[in-house]
C-alpha cells in the first residue's frame, strides 16, 4: 500500500473517489457534502490531496482546503474504498494529510466538522479539540459547501451555530500543550444529544 501526495498523474481516480464518497453517504445515512470530479481534480493538481493506492487500485483519499486567506485549513473528504476498510488505512491517510497540512500551512489552524465517531477519535488523537462553530472559519464559501448535505436545514435553522456535525480544531500555537485524547464515549454522548435535540424539533 502506498500513501502519497496526489498530483496530475492521479486525475484518473477522480471519478471513483467521488462515487465512493457518495455511496458511503448512502450506506451510512449521514450528511456528507457532495464532491465533483472536477473539484477533486483541482485538489490533486494543486498538491492539496493525499491518495492511497494498492498498485494501480484506488484505496483511499483525503484533501486539503484553505480558508480565510490561509488562516484556517480543513482536511476534508476522507474516504476509504469498501475493499480496504477495517485495516487501519483511514488513520494512516488522516495522519499523512495532517502532516502535509502542517508542512504546507504552518501557521494555519486545522479544523474538521464531522458526524463520524471514528473521525472524531482520530482527530482527538492528533491533538484536535472540540469547539463551537464560532471558533472555525467565518469564510461563507466554506459553509456554502454544506448545501448538498442532507442536514443543511439544521445548519440554517441555527444560523450556522450548530449542526449534527461536531467541530474540532487543531491550533499550532497550542500544540506544545499536553495532548490528551478524548474518550470515544464522550463523542458518542455528544452525537446522541444532538440527534435527539434536532429530531425532536423536526417531529413537532
From TrEMBL:
It comes from Ulvibacter litoralis. SUPFAM superfamilies: Acyl-CoA N-acyltransferases (Nat). This is N-acetyltransferase domain-containing protein. InterPro entries: Acyl_CoA_acyltransferase, GNAT_dom. Coiled coil: none annotated. It holds the Pfam family Acetyltransf_1. Residues 43-104 form the N-acetyltransferase domain. It comes from the Bacteria. One of its GO terms (molecular function) is acyltransferase activity, transferring groups other than amino-acyl groups.
